[in-house]
Write a structure and sequence with these properties.
Strand order of the largest sheet: 1-2
Largest sheet: 2 strands, antiparallel
Order of helices and strands: HHEEHHH
Length: about 120
């Protein structure tokens, strides 16, 4: 699998977004905090509308969905694969992606993992 130039650019943009996120405001285990602000990398990516993804509130006006007009499902992993490349959900965004860490995943961990993901898939 090879990443497209656009997917690499999207990943680099996400790294820049994550550099501005304080560790105290990051939670890799949920897309959004209960107040509606982004919690994890995917939540921040959608809020920043990287690669055309965006946040759409469900019919209850509370449940946020991460969507993309070119992805026909509401599965967040499908959106991740379209915007960031096949395998990106498992490698970067899934709650189990950083299980080997002795501490909760923070933005710097995702930033470093993105570099590895690009190197392995280019």
């Amino acid at each position: 699998m090879s990443l497209t130039a656009e997917q690499i650019a999207n990943l680099r943009q996400l790294q820049n977004v994550l550099r501005a996120v304080p560790d105290t405001e990051y939670n890799h285990d949920e897309l959004f905090h209960s107040c509606g602000t982004p919690a994890c990398a995917m939540g921040h990516a959608a809020t920043a509308e990287i690669g055309g993804m965006y946040v759409l509130l469900g019919t209850n006006k509370k449940t946020p969905w991460i969507v993309h007009d070119h992805v026909d499902t509401l599965w967040t992993d499908d959106v991740a694969h379209y915007v960031f490349g096949t395998g990106s959900w498992t490698a970067l965004f899934n709650v189990d992606a950083f299980d080997t860490l002795d501490v909760p995943a923070k933005p710097r961990h995702v930033i470093d993992r993105i570099d590895r993901f690009i190197e392995e898939n280019s």
